[in-house]
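>> Question from a student workshop board

For tomorrow's exercise we were told to take the sequence and the ligand below, predict the bound structure, and bring the output to class. My setup keeps failing. Could a helper post the expected result so I can at least see what it should look like? The ligand is flavin mononucleotide.
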Amino acid sequence: MVYHEGILVTSNEVVNAAAIGADIEASKIRCMIYRPSDTARNLESEKRFTYCLTDDPLLFFKGALTGNDEPKSPELSEEELCLQDDFFYPKKATKVYFCTVDSTFEKYIFDEYGEARLKGVEGTIICENKIREAQPLDREDPLVDAMVHATRLSIADEEKKESLQGKIREILAAEESTKNHRKDVKDKIIEFVEGAFS
Ligand SMILES: Cc1cc2nc3c(=O)[nH]c(=O)nc-3n(C[C@H](O)[C@H](O)[C@H](O)COP(=O)(O)O)c2cc1C
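>> Workshop helper replied:
Here is what the output should look like for this input. Compare the format with yours to find the bug.
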């Protein structure tokens, strides 16, 4: 199994994109999805989804830090999406996996934020396509790492929020890229983190 960070696309009333980790081995894929979320809800009825790798940090931002558990709010516009064989995927994907759901299971865990309900999803990759040659982002990337911590702000108490804010600042200090698209995402993450305290 190889663990990836990517964007999981489902559709129900609207097309939903969420940043989700996935274990992939040959034609099998497995994800653990927190509830409540649009992704977990959509996969109750939808038996197919797209999993995408990407080198675009803005896609992670939109998937992780916008439209959380908001079934009527699409994270991506129609112009940002492609459709192939009934599977939607973001234009900025570097590789896409078209998947069907084989089985789901429920899991309860108790972590530092309290009790959490997860939906496990096991699926089969029926088709995979490399869209373009590029190194996809993963958790080694400071922007991606900072966003993982930022998604926890909504479930953290005031004390934990402050320690998460410190952690995110520390991670983002390591982000030294001069590329405009990365600087823009860094600013958006900072704005999101500050918004969690207002
Ligand atoms: C790199 C990264 C990986 C993530 N992996 C997961 C995951 O494996 N499971 C999960 O439930 N949420 C994960 N998240 C958080 C979700 O992206 C976030 O909760 C999202 O808003 C859910 O959106 P939805 O309500 O549209 O499904 C991850 C976030 C980031 C930045």
